[in-house]
């Protein structure tokens, strides 16, 4: 396999490819054998820290639609072209951070859902079929339809995500989180879904918040944030916190009057580790602070100095005494 093609593929897979190099990658795909494509894609999918997964039923539906596009080809070339289109399908599906322009022509009769999972300690930016960019924080998962249709809807099943939504006045963009729906036309906002609440911080545009559990709809405007309590189904609107909201995208691990137990949970997601707090007296102590691109050891040492605790590692778990 040409080394340049493999380098372009890996750049695209990591979301670090330029538009010029992306065009070059597309031009090189038809010049690469199906066997080489398949081997490269399988290798990268098996070693990737993030995953795009799809049910076998959905895979079969897409492949059937790919086949429908080439069924009028002459019979002697049909199988060869089907393999080529199938290889292109797997290639573009594996390129999580890329464009899904190619799949518009498939027009399946039913939605084809997939999801992106980002493991703790990682971050990932993907581009949805409509051009909307979504950056996922560690330990997050997003579900969406890979084939553009008349409506745009994604589901944040866990974690935190920043949305930069492509504007389309005729087709609102909706994010479903638990029993809440966030509807926008074109805007930038951050959604954090944790065990007891959903926080939506708006930076531009406007969003509408709805839920069957709420007595009324709510609208957010730039600089405002909503906090929706899952247990009580109560929603309040306040100002964005410039010191913490969406700062994770810039490499900041920031807290403002947050209980230490919650802080440790965020540290777990940030660094991909497990932490056990045995000193329960510290669990509800409120912490305010900011760490910027610091190592796990540096963060733990700072907390140790403040709280005077000791910690050690036991079978991969950090134990705080």
From TrEMBL:
Coiled coil start-end: none
Superkingdom: Bacteria
Transmembrane parts of this sequence: 82-103
GO MF annotations in UniProt: sigma factor antagonist activity
Database matches in InterPro entries: FecR, FecR_C, Ferrdict_sens_TM
Protein FecR C-terminal domain ranges (all copies): 252-320
All copies of domain FecR protein, residue ranges: 116-208
This protein's name: FecR family protein
Phylogenetic placement of the source organism: Bacteria, Pseudomonadati, Bacteroidota, Bacteroidia, Bacteroidales
């Amino acid at each position: 396999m040409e080394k340049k093609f493999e380098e372009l593929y890996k750049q695209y897979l990591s979301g670090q490819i330029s538009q010029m190099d992306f065009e070059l990658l597309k031009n090189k795909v038809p010049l690469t054998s199906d066997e080489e494509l398949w081997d490269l894609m399988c290798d990268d999918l098996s070693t990737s820290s993030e995953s795009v997964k799809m049910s076998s039923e959905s895979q079969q539906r897409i492949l059937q639609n790919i086949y429908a596009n080439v069924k009028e080809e002459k019979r002697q070339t049909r199988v060869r072209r089907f393999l080529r289109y199938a290889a292109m399908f797997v290639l573009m599906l594996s390129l999580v951070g890329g464009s899904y322009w190619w799949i518009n022509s498939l027009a399946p009769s039913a939605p084809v859902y997939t999801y992106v999972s980002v493991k703790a300690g990682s971050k990932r930016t993907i581009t949805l079929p409509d051009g909307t960019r979504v950056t996922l924080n560690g330990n997050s998962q997003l579900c969406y339809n890979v084939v553009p249709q008349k409506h745009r809807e994604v589901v944040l099943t866990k974690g935190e995500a920043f949305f930069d939504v492509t504007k389309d006045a005729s087709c609102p963009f909706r994010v479903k989180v638990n029993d809440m729906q966030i509807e926008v036309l074109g805007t930038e906002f951050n959604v954090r879904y944790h065990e007891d609440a959903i926080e939506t911080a708006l930076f531009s545009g406007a969003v509408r918040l709805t839920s069957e559990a709420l007595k009324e709809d709510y609208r957010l405007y730039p600089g405002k944030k909503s906090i929706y309590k899952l247990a009580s189904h109560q929603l309040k609107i306040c100002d964005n916190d410039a010191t913490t909201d969406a700062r994770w995208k810039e490499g900041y691990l920031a807290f403002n009057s947050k209980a230490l137990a919650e802080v440790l949970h965020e540290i777990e997601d940030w660094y991909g580790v497990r932490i056990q707090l045995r000193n329960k007296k510290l669990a509800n102590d409120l912490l305010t602070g900011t760490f910027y691109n610091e190592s796990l050891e540096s963060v733990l040492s700072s907390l140790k100095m403040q709280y005077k605790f000791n910690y050690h590692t036991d079978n991969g778990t950090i134990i705080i005494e």
